[in-house]
Each structure stands twice: as C-alpha cells, then as structure tokens.
Write a structure and sequence with these properties.
With about 450 residues, this protein is mostly helical. The protein contains 18 helices and six strands. A three-stranded antiparallel sheet has the order 1-2-3. The longest helix has 27 residues, at about 165-190. The radius of gyration is 24 Å and the shape is globular. The termini are far apart. Bound molecules: acetyl coenzyme *A. Acetyl coenzyme *A binds near residues 310, 313, 367 and 371.
C-alpha cells in the first residue's frame, strides 16, 4: 500500500478468543467510500491471516483513478460521473483523464492526440506473428499473443524505472492495440491487413482498419464512429476488477508493461468478465424466441444447472450498472442509424430484461443488467462478429490497465503482490518408496 496518508480515524480491535492477545487495526478513510480496516499488522501481532476468496471484502491497493458505489449504481472516472463523460467527452479525452488525473487543456489534448494517433503502425516484423496462428484462432488468442510479443520489439521502452520509458510504452500500447485488434480480425476472415490512417480519429480508425478493403472506397459512418467511441469510454476503466488486478499483480513483480497488458487480456477473456458480451449473444441465439424465455429462466434458477443469465449480475453493482443504461440508449440510436427497425435479438433482450427484473430470484439477489447485456447487440449491428466483442473491450480497457499500472509503479511504497492461503492439504509426512505403496 502507498505512503499516502488517509483521512479518518477510529480503529477495529481484534481479540483472539481464549487469550488476552488483541490487535488494534486503524480504520483508513479514502475521499469517498467505506472505511477500510488496515490489516497489515494483523499477522505480526496475532499470527493470523484474513481469508477472503474472490477478494469481495479486500482493498488490495489505494487508487485515485476510478470510484464505484455498487449500491447506488455510481461510476466515477477521476471524480467525473460516467454519464457526464459519456455525453460530453471522447475516448481520447477520457484516456488523458485516466492517465493524468485531470481533463486536458486544448493544447494538452492536441499533444496527447498527436502522441496516440501518430503511433498506430506496428513494427513491420510483427506482421509475421499473425501468420503463425491458425486461421480459425480466436482473435483474443491472437491479441494476447501479439501484445505479449511487443516486449520483443520495443526494447527502447522497457525500463519501468524510467518515467520516459513508461510514457512511451503507454502511448505505444494505446496507439497500437487497435491495429493489432483489427489485424487479428482481418486475419481470421482472410482479408489483407489495412494499415492505419493517422488522419482519422481513434474509433474511426478502428472501424476503417476492420471494415475497409483495399479494392474499395470506405467512408466511416460518423454515427457509428461516435457509438464506438462511446462504448470505448464506458469500458475504459472499472476499478480493481479481475483483469486490472491481474495487470497490477503481474506489474508488481517488475514485469514490462507489454507482458502485463497481455496478462490483463488473458484475464479479460473469461466469460465471467470481458467474455460476457460474446456469451450474451450466444445466449440470445440459444433462447431463439421470446416464447422460450420462461423455460430458459427456469434453467438459470435451477441450482443443479450451470446456466447463468449472461450480462446480468456484477460483483460490485447491486443496482443497475450505470453503463448498461447508456448502452441501452446507444443501442436504439445505432439500430435507428442503420435503419434496423425490428431487431429480433434486441426485442428478445428487452423482454428478457423486463421479465428478469420482475422475477423474485433476480430481485432478491440484486441482479441487474451489466454493461455487457446490450453492448453485443450494438456491436453486432455495427458489423462486428461476436468473436471480436471482447477484443474491442480489451482495446478500451488498455487505457485503464495502463493508467493503473503507471499509478502502481509510481507509488514509492509499491511491493510485490503476494497473497497467502489456508493450507488444506496433507500435513507433513515421510516419503514412501514405491515398493511399499499398495
Ligand atoms: N445468473 C443467475 N444467477 C446469478 C447470476 C446470473 N448472471 N449472477 C449471480 N447469480 C446468483 C448466484 O447463483 C448466487 O445465487 P445464490 O446466492 O443462490 O448462490 C448469487 O446470485 C450471488 O452470485 P455470486 O456468484 O456470488 O456473484 P459474484 O459476485 O461472485 O459474480 C458475476 C459476479 C461473475 C459477474 C456473476 O453475476 C455472473 O456470472 N454474471 C454473468 C456473467 C456476466 O455477465 N459477467 C460480466 C460482468 S461485468 C464485466 O466484467 C464487464
């Protein structure tokens, strides 16, 4: 934990039953949010650990970047509500905000945009990596592999103790990950790679690299570019979620940023995390028709089935995910722009949400739609295949990962992350020669 001094006072006293040994643990207070008991001296004073699988009640670090109040459905980036940023800001402005803590002045924004938008090309030899993958490789596998491979190409920015190296590698990641993502897609459909165009905005360039072909003119639809930019804003950071914690844990060892972000991408891929948007569309396709919703929800509620309502529930939000509301509105705007009047998947999703929000099972467990419930429908309407959904999420989250990684490295009190365990295996025993084993 950092050398930051925390406001607030008070303490928790822990007494070991059957002994007169006690430990007094200070209560730390951030700028907002609940108090946090400082457990650092617990083991030294009482010889006991805390047990918190899944870390639901554990603050693993302090951070100034993102705040979530899961009960109230509040999400703030550097203090600014996500609704305001979604309405007034843009992804690159949000990226600046997350990285540097303040909204940029016009001059700062222009310089930042130049730094990101002019470093979009990949080292030409990185191209060969794509050919090493099977054509049917999942683009997340390709993204993870090629981002990890960046460590082998950009040796001049690997010294994590040098602030200039950190800055350069951060820009390289934010600028080049969309190119890698687009090429992973192009490779999977057998089309030529489309090189980035630095005159385009961040989201525009992504649409261009993914959807353009050399044989034809391609004009980016500004409504779709704005929608994609908004999706990137909504996914840019989300506090200490699984993938961000993975990046911090990898980074705590001193690993280089490209390796750390590759680890974050791997963690994001799971269906309980970033893979949920892909899983939502698969679920909607499996349900097939509104008439099948009751049967499907019975399966979800059956304790003996592993079926979950994908896009519902969240470890932190016990209220409507504020991003899901914005996503739902965007969904309608995108479908209108594309002239899609009746989308059976959207109709199915709206009805599924309505039924679930009135069902005692979901109400009593405070399960609400999360950001992924509607994002897949938008992305599908925009022409992205389902396998690319989590890839686009990873592009957005790269900004959050990089910001969190930088914050951690710049903290002078940063230590290697090293959780403990309750050991439940065999007690110490002697080796038995094979001839004596029955
Ligand atoms: N469908 C059905 N039941 C659910 C769901 C769901 N989607 N989510 C939680 N529950 C139930 C659990 O079965 C449990 O019920 P019980 O108390 O009767 O045992 C209760 O709600 C609490 O659930 P937990 O598993 O303790 O919740 P946890 O915080 O561990 O899980 C998670 C959060 C992983 C997101 C979960 O809600 C889930 O699997 N959702 C579906 C996947 C998804 O949409 N993930 C995206 C998350 S957002 C993101 O990463 C961008």
């Amino acid at each position: 934990m950092s050398g930051t001094s925390y406001s607030g006072s008070g303490s928790v006293t822990v007494t070991l039953d059957g002994s007169n040994r006690t430990a007094t643990l200070p209560l730390l207070q951030g700028t907002i949010g609940p108090s946090v008991a400082d457990m650092r001296k617990l083991y030294a004073e009482l010889g006991i650990f805390t047990f918190d699988p899944g870390y639901g009640g554990t603050a693993a670090c302090d951070s100034k970047i993102t705040y979530i109040d899961g009960d109230a459905g509040v999400l703030l980036y550097r203090g600014y509500p996500i609704e305001q940023l979604a309405e007034h800001s843009s992804f690159l402005e949000v990226a600046y905000l997350l990285m540097y803590g303040e909204l940029p002045t016009p001059a700062q924004k222009a310089e930042f945009d130049r730094g990101v938008l002019h470093h979009t090309m990949l080292h030409e030899q990185l191209r060969s990596f794509f050919n090493g993958f099977r054509r049917d490789a999942h683009p997340m596998a390709v993204l993870c592999g090629v981002v990890g491979a960046m460590s082998a190409f950009y040796h001049d920015s690997l010294d994590i103790n040098d602030p200039e190296h950190r800055r350069i590698s951060a820009f390289r990641l934010i600028a080049k990950v969309p190119t890698i993502a687009a090429w992973a897609y192009k490779y999977s459909i057998g089309q030529p790679f489309v090189y980035p165009r630095n005159s385009l905005g961040y989201a525009e360039n992504m649409l261009y690299m993914m959807h353009a072909v050399p044989a034809e003119e391609y004009t980016v639809n500004p409504v779709l570019a704005r929608a994609l930019d908004l999706i990137l804003v909504l996914h840019a950071d989300h506090e200490q979620n699984a993938s961000t914690s993975t990046v911090r844990l990898a980074g705590s060892t001193g690993a280089n940023p490209f390796a750390c972000i590759a680890a974050g991408i791997a963690s994001l891929w799971g269906p309980a995390h970033g893979g949920a948007n892909e899983a939502v569309l698969k679920m909607l396709a499996d349900i097939g028709h509104v008439a099948h919703i009751p049967d499907f929800l019975e399966k979800v509620k059956d304790k003996n089935s592993a079926v979950r309502l994908m896009g519902f529930g969240h470890r932190v939000y016990k209220n409507y995910d504020p991003r899901a509301k914005i996503m739902q509105q965007t969904c309608h705007a995108v479908l209108a722009e594309l002239g899609i009047k009746d989308d059976p998947l959207l109709d199915l999703a709206v009805e599924l949400e309505r039924v679930a929000l009135h069902d005692e099972y979901f109400v009593s467990r405070k399960l609400y739609p999360n950001v992924d419930f509607y994002s897949g429908i938008i992305l599908k309407a925009m022409g992205f295949p389902t396998s690319m959904f989590t890839v686009l999420f990873a592009v957005a989250r790269t900004v959050g990962w990089v910001s969190q990684w930088m914050e951690m490295i710049e903290d002078p009190a940063q230590r290697i992350g090293r959780p403990r365990q309750i050991y439940t295996g065999a007690p110490q025993r002697d080796y038995l020669p094979m001839s004596r084993r029955t």
